[in-house]
């Protein structure tokens, strides 16, 4: 193998390893971590969740976290370290569970 081919091969391998590091980094579009617990006394059954809080929540699959299946029109979200099940049309909270 000539010197040019070896140089290209080493450059290609190096590029492969270097581009993978960009994918390994955590990127958050907003500066809020939904996994860090924040106590919200107001988030109880019947509370009308603020649109801003609900929108920054992360939609989750209830089966993954061993939560009960939400009824039609409801969904689970992870917000401030809390699993919150609320109506999708008006934000009325049905259940709040602390995520551990």
Structural account:
By secondary structure, the protein is an alpha+beta fold. The chain has one domain: Nuclear Transport Factor 2, Chain: A. The protein is built from two helices and four strands. A hairpin with a 5-residue loop joins strand 3 (82-87) and strand 4. The protein is elongated, with a radius of gyration of 22 Å. The model is unreliable at 21-29 (pLDDT under 50).
Major sheet attributes: 4 strands, antiparallel
Rg over CA atoms, rounded to whole Å, is: 22 Å
Helix content: 25-40%
Taking pLDDT < 50 over at least 5 consecutive residues as the criterion, the unreliable ranges are 21-29
Averaged pLDDT: 82
Strand order across the biggest sheet?
1-2-3-4
Number of helices: 2
Number of domains as seen in the coordinates: 1
Span of the ends, CA to CA: 56 Å
> Which assembly state applies to the chains in this document?
single chain
Q: What CATH first level would be assigned?
A: Alpha Beta
Q: What's the SSE pattern?
A: HHEEEE
- Shape type: elongated
CATH topology: Nuclear Transport Factor 2, Chain: A
Strand content: 15-25%
CATH architecture: Roll
Can you give keywords for this protein?
100 residues; single chain; elongated; 20% strand; Nuclear Transport Factor 2, Chain: A; alpha+beta
């Amino acid at each position: 193998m000539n010197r040019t081919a070896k140089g290209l091969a080493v450059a290609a391998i190096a590029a492969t390893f270097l581009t993978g590091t960009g994918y390994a980094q955590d990127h958050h579009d907003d500066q809020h971590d939904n996994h860090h617990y924040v106590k919200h006394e107001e988030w109880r059954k019947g509370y009308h969740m603020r649109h801003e809080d609900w929108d920054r929540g992360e939609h989750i699959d209830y089966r993954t976290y061993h939560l009960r299946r939400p009824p039609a029109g409801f969904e689970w979200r992870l917000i401030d370290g809390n699993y919150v099940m609320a109506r999708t049309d008006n934000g009325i909270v049905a259940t709040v569970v602390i995520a551990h």
